[in-house]
Amino acid sequence: MIACWAGAGLSPTDFSTSEMNPEKIISVVIPARNAASTIAALLRSLLPDAGLIKEILLVDDGSGDATVEIAKNSAERYGLPLFILPAACGTAGAARNFGIAQAQGKFLFFMDADDELISGALTILAGLLIENPAAGLAIGACIRQTASRQDKIKIPHGYTEDCDENVIRYLANELWPIAMGSAMIVTAQAAGIRFPETIGLDEDTCYWTALLTRVRVVTSAEPVLIYKLDEARMSRRYISAPRKTLLGIARAFRILASYGIPDAALKQRIAWVALRIARQLIIDRQYSEAEGILRLVRAHPCFRPTVRVFRYNLRIKVGGIFQRLGVCKPVVGQRAVEVASRSRRTLLVTVDSASPPVSGADLRNHQNAKSLGKLGRVRVVSIRPGGSERIDHNPQIEFFSVGVLDERSKSLSSRRCSVETRISRTALSRLLETIRDFRPDTILVEGIPLAALLKPVRSLTKCLILDMHNIESDLASQRQTVAFRKDAARVRRLEKKSLKRVDRIWVCSEQDRERLIALHQPSASIHVVPNCIPGGSPLRSECQPRIQSCEKSPVMLFVGHLGYWPNVAAAERLARGILPNVRETFPAAKVILTGRYPDRVVQSLAGLPGVELHANPESLVPFYERAHVAVVPLSEGGGTRIKVLEAMAVGLPVVATAVAVEGLGLVEHEDVLLADSDEDLARHIVELCRNPNMMLKQILSANKTARLRFGSEAVDFAVKNGFQ
After folding, report:
1. 2-229 in CATH: which number?
2. CATH 3.90.550.10: which residues of the chain?
3. What's the Cα-to-Cα distance from 635 to each of 334, 575, 660, rounded to whole Å?
4. How much is the CA Rg of the chain, to the nearest whole Å?
């Protein structure tokens, strides 16, 4: 159920109570502005607790992107009771207040649009309040994810039965700050309490402090929230008009005196906020502004004698002297982040060249390079020969190869398991020389196939990231012979060892993230960087004539790295099993197999009736233009699945197995047709070719999904979050 209030003159009371299950007791309030890249994941994280949710109130604060459209599509897909509240609030506090005024649930729960719940979070928090009827606030632990630091679990503790003590300790930072999305409130006990609407910092502290004056607290050490802290954005808030910001926060806290909070506790909190602002100003070398703010801090007896204040004061004096001598210049406001971004250098190490991109892995590397190019200089180095072209002539991105064709040299990698790529010692020598010349801040390595590189490059960068296109150990375990079981064990050991050597890990989907945690429990932070629909793949023109032409001789297309064993098995299955079934109805039906480095098994398929093989194509455009249906009959595997996204983006209907689309969140019979057997896959293909209206409907639905959820904006955001 999806509705739109406010601007349309509607309210929640316009819906009959029969639509609301009486067991649904939670109102979820989400302020959102330009959250298209994160809102789908947030809503999906609510799904395990959908039985408790009475309403999800999405306060759309003037979004200029596809936030609302994606939210509606996600709610329809998951069957969530989403209500869109258009508003022009200006601050998160005002947006939350707008949602509070509409909320009808017994319990109230706030979330930020870029965070995600851990499965069962609402059940845990609601259970605490139900089991403790005297309590008004339930707080769970949260996992804080921050750029360049390991994930940290923040467990609430130290709350007592004394409300006054809780308030004073909370303002003094003796209790962990309550993260938005980690706490649930009894709505009746929060009556009349609102967020400050004129400030964008510490407005949540004001709200929780006011609430703590009147409610008892129950806590859980079990994590309920993945809290994604953008430190760069937080820093910008502190240094944008710092004096005005501090004055607004001071006024908001002084209003709390009406709740009976001691003046000394409020002044201590204001001084602490001033200390945070001064710290950021010092980092940005704005020493004059920092000196003015620090005066307020020194005036408070709790902070005047501290080592921290002495150190800040010394840095201001020394920095001011150097600044007057012209040795360093201040970096003002937003430019602080922009200058830092421009100075970043990222080295992306790949197996094959990402230029031009052909296979799914190439396309992922290609998009990662483009996204990173918006943050600073990028050098893409392939182990195998190739890579002399630039992406879109972007001067920020360079391509190199350290591989030489037919070069003979000892291998660096042990190659004791099937996934490792051969890396010659001379190629390693060239790579290390390139790294020393480029001096990257971050090195991004393409997956476990290049695991042997992690140790030698570890000391040459501040941040080492492993981009796991696949969870290789899970993939290897799907092959059931004795020999492959031994191989799977070796892959698992290699994977575990590799994960200990890196600072951050990228995966393609939430499913891969959960799978990786279950297998290895890595200490490095894990970030989901979804695959992107390839650039330059517009919806094919003249869809209707193309659809009609498939009624005579349909052309099925399979694209992928044809030396990769799951793709080899899929290609053989398509040519030997599915095509003959389709040809019973359409005798002239054809299959096109195209991709890089075809295996001998794939090469042998080219001799079968109706099968074409096109190895190492320079462009996939001609094949997409000829094809009528993209068929992805993977029986096993994982990976980037870009072949599915690209087909959706260019306007090809997709018929696939469930394995082939795992993690993409596609809707069956709308975005894709799914089956497991060759006969059922063939039946779907025949049904599509016989029904032009059905084919057109699927093309348009899939294209819309691809562009909204897997467009470059979503990937740029994820890369930035996983890269900082």
Report:
1. 3.90.550.10
2. 2-229
3. 50, 14, 8
4. 28
Class of 543-713 per CATH?
Answer: alpha beta
Residue 80's pLDDT is what?
A: 93
Please give the DSSP secondary-structure letter assigned to residue 602. H
The CATH classification number of 344-528 equals 3.40.50.2000
Q: Is the dihedral of CA 361, 712, 29, 200 positive or negative?
A: positive
What does the block give as tokens for 301?
A: 């007896």
Alpha helices by DSSP H, 284-306: 287-298
Contact 376/346 with Cβ under 8 angstroms?
yes
pTM of the model: 0.56
Task: Give φ, ψ of 297 to 5 degrees.
Answer: -65, -45
Render 16-70 in DSSP notation, one character per residue.
-GGGS-TT--EEEEEEESS-TTTHHHHHHHHGGGGGGEEEEEEEEES--SSHHHH
Rounded Cα gap, residues 344 and 346, in angstroms: 7
pLDDT tens digit sequence for 496-539: 999 999 999 998 887 788 888 888 888 888 888 888 876 545 55
**Residues 198-243 pLDDT 10s:** 887 888 999 999 999 999 999 998 889 888 776 666 666 666 678 8
CATH 3.40.50.2000 domain locations along the chain: 344-528, 543-713
**651 near 543, Cβ under 8 Å?**
yes
Copy the structure tokens of residue 558.
């399979």
